[in-house]
Write a structure and sequence with these properties.
- The complex is a heterodimer.
- Chain A is 32% helix and 29% strand.
- By secondary structure, chain A is of the alpha/beta class.
- In chain A, helix 4 runs antiparallel to helix 5.
- The radius of gyration of chain A is 21 Å and the shape is elongated.
- Chain B is built from seven helices and no strands.
- In chain B, helix 1 runs parallel beside helix 5 and helix 2 runs antiparallel to helix 5.
- Chain B is elongated and about 60 Å long.
- In chain B, 21% of the residues are buried.
- The chains are: A alpha/beta, B mainly alpha.
- At the A-B interface, helix 2 and helix 3 of A face helix 1 and helix 4 of B.
């Protein structure tokens, strides 16, 4: 299976933040969610892929080509949505489209009009009068109107209210059902990905925690609940993160079968959500205490 | 490149309107205010005023893109970086010619007014091809230095 994106040992150093040795790949035709807490490095990774910032080491290939040597060819085939698209606010969507469309060889005016109608966006209202949801929908319409093979979205749902967010995800899901596009979608709202992602890459504090198929992750990880007395040193090592309260402990494991075999009679094992995985991994080295 | 230049003018057109109206107004006021005391310094003052108006006016595209932070959008499009920089120079260069044209037209209109008849020879000197050439070359020099500085700081 060929990869639409291959990142190998990429590092980027800022004064106060390092992105260390990131490696993952996305097979063609699949959706990958890039998750991690705020400030984990998700946006930096996306900016590196788009060559908006320079990497310090490593290699990035998009469609099998180096992302810097073939930047223009690659961007021709990418639909990109920023977390906060900055358009000229005094212009309307039609004017913005007229500015952006000529840069793409494969711009499809009919597709753009279809999406604008589907999203119920006004073409002649200035962007200043758009809500954040409308701006995001406009950005999506522009990103999907040049038959891009690879869609990259940086936190498209952050800052949207729950109703608009759900509506936005449904629209996105419907759109993607009919076409074979590859998608990289960063978010810290993990529930957005439970429905649509095939692969999950988890970044925490500039380090890659894992990059795996979503089903494999949800199969291997589990939440374990039990009494505090069970939590000795050996048992503690089975967990990725532990939260202790007066009534017991709650922990994340990535080895469900082993924990089930070892502790099954004394603990309750539940399916872990991506949010659980993110929360406990983020507090891996801490013994989180809750009252 | 042409699309980037067109983009600058499309995004800037409402602001350009204000500046286009402002330049003749400021030039006329400055000229009329100095009419009693025509001398060498007037040419110098008018040259400096023209340089300032045209230079600040030509930065309008840069200011618009900075205020809306739209650079990121264009950096994500299939455009070479060199083209983005070159287009910015070309747009500002075109705008400089446009503004200089407005200043020249303003001077010509004021000189044609009957109330300024006694200063005819002065206007002839102000509107001489050589005078315009000097201002134009100075403007190009200023832009050649100011843009790298702004790109470096920005």
């Amino acid at each position: 299976m060929s990869s639409v994106l291959e990142i190998k040992n990429v590092s980027k150093y800022y004064d106060d933040f390092h992105l260390n040795n990131i490696s993952f790949s996305l097979p063609e035709g699949y959706i990958m969610g890039l998750i991690g807490p705020n400030g984990a490095g998700k946006t930096s990774i996306i900016k590196l892929i788009m060559n908006l910032i320079m990497k310090n080491s490593g290699s990035i290939k998009v469609f099998g080509k180096d992302h810097q040597d073939f930047e223009v060819d690659i961007k021709e085939r990418i639909g990109f949505v920023y977390d906060n698209p900055n358009y000229y606010e005094h212009l309307n969507l039609k004017q913005i489209k007229n500015i952006i469309a000529p840069f793409y060889k494969n711009w499809d005016e009919g597709e753009f009009i279809n999406l604008v109608q589907k999203f119920e966006l006004p073409l002649n209202k200035s962007i200043k009068g758009f809500s954040r949801g409308m701006v995001m929908k406009g950005a999506i319409a522009i990103a999907l109107s040049h038959h891009a093979d690879f869609i990259i979205m940086d936190e498209p749902t952050s800052g949207l209210d729950p109703v608009i967010r759900r509506e936005f995800l449904d629209l996105l899901y419907d759109l993607l059902q009919n076409e074979k596009k590859s998608i990289l979608f960063s978010t810290h709202i993990t529930s957005d990905l439970e429905k649509i992602a095939d692969y999950i890459t988890f970044i925490n504090n500039g380090e890659m925690v894992f990059s795996k198929a979503k089903d494999e992750i949800l199969e291997n990880y589990a939440i374990v609940k039990g009494g505090k007395e069970l939590l000795n040193g050996r048992v503690r090592e089975l967990f990725q993160g532990v939260r202790v309260s007066d009534i017991g402990f709650e922990a994340l494991t990535n080895n469900t079968n082993f924990v089930r075999k070892e502790l099954s009679d004394n603990v309750v094992i539940e399916k872990a959500s991506l949010e659980d995985i993110m929360y406990f991994t983020n507090n891996k080295n801490n013994y989180v205490k809750s009252n | 490149m042409l699309n980037l230049i067109k983009k600058d003018f499309t995004a800037g057109k409402i602001y350009l309107g204000g500046i286009t109206l402002g330049i003749p107004f400021l030039t006329s006021i400055a000229l009329l205010a100095m009419m009693d005391d025509f001398g060498g310094i007037v040419y110098g003052f008018l040259t400096i005023l023209t340089l300032l108006l045209c230079t600040f006016g030509s930065l309008i595209f840069l200011l618009i893109d900075s205020s809306f932070e739209t650079d990121s959008i264009f950096a994500s499009l299939p455009i070479k970086r060199d083209s983005i920089i070159l287009a910015r120079y070309f747009s500002s260069f075109l705008l400089t010619i446009f503004y200089l044209g407005i200043v020249v037209i303003t001077l010509w209109v004021v000189s044609s007014l009957s109330l300024a008849k006694e200063y005819e020879s002065t206007f002839e000197r102000l509107l001489s091809f050589r005078g315009i050439q000097i201002v134009f070359v100075l403007l190009l020099f200023i832009q050649a230095f100011i843009f790298p500085c702004i790109f470096k700081i920005g």
